[in-house]
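fyi for ur records
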Amino acid sequence: MKRIYLDYAATTPMRSEVVEAMLPYFTEVFGNPSTIYSYGQEAKEAIEESRSKIARLIKAQEEEIVFTGSGTEADNLALTGIIYASEGKKDHIITSAVEHHAVSETTKFLEKRRYKISYLPVDEYGLVNPDDVKKALTAKTVLISVMHANNEVGTIEPIKEIGRIAREAKVYFHTDAVQAVGHIGVDVKELGVDLLSISAHKLYGPKGVGALYIRKGTRIAPLMHGGEQEKRRRAGTENVPGIVGLGVAAELALEEIEEEAGRLRQLRDRLVEGLKERIKHIHFNGHPVKRLPNNVNICVEYVEGESMVLNLDLEGICVSTGSACTSSNLEPSHVLSSMGLPPELAHGSLRFTLGKWTTNEDINRVLEVLPRIVAKLRAMSPLLKSRR
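which gave:
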């Protein structure tokens, strides 16, 4: 049985070009980049080349890219680094109710240490209202953090508008762009952000490496302490193979982004229309237009999302019920709940995220299999029986 992978928002397989580029840095070019002899300098040169490739992808300067161990670490560094650097002068962060847990758990951590956090609501599409950002500003606000594109429902937030508000207020602005970079065009100057998080494994690179764009002149305290790597902003010997892999993935994304986004948009729209035709009592989540080209998030009435995921897996189709980072949690998605969906509907959610190896045949297979699974589960559903 052919397996069909439709959970590219959770992680992506590494491209063969990425693997091939990384291999020499495990065995041949293995030097510590902090050393001054040839082995170390060759490794350092590879790091700087990757830094340049990532900067080109997001239209930044090379010196503004700091390598981290993940997108999660990049988010943590952005939030804690900015507020700690403020040294008590400012203690307020504005964020949204639909952030990835890498941001929301960090803000909860900071709240326990008596920092002030404002969580902005979203509308039924998951969009933050820029006017709410403006209203939440105080004299003590040091940072605004709003994600670029939502990992569950694919909604693209009004980052440019929020960026303008942040600049006018002279407040730092961070965006978690883990789901956006490499999939849609990202220009840090156009967006008006001071900090932007990236994860390699979301754009066909390796796990265990990420990056944080830090605009030149931004005051930030390090999260980790030790050596002087990354200009003292991120201590620890660099993951050279991983950084090389991220660089190659970024280079390939820049070359292909427009064409691939168009291809995925067509597949996504075929999936949406096919599901509408074949399954009754189905809801589509996220903004219908302002959304990632590869994301389809649905709620199916009278059926549990986990049951659909397991039944699809038996048919060789891999999807999720929401964020892969919390898919084992029985609580309904905080994103869907914040968008106003009742718990019984939010529990029936499925997320399809398409990618480089998704084909028309894969979409056909989902449209063949899922209606049958839904019909079977509804026939057994106590939720449906209670409505009759």
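The first strand starts at residue 4 and ends at 5. thats all i got for now
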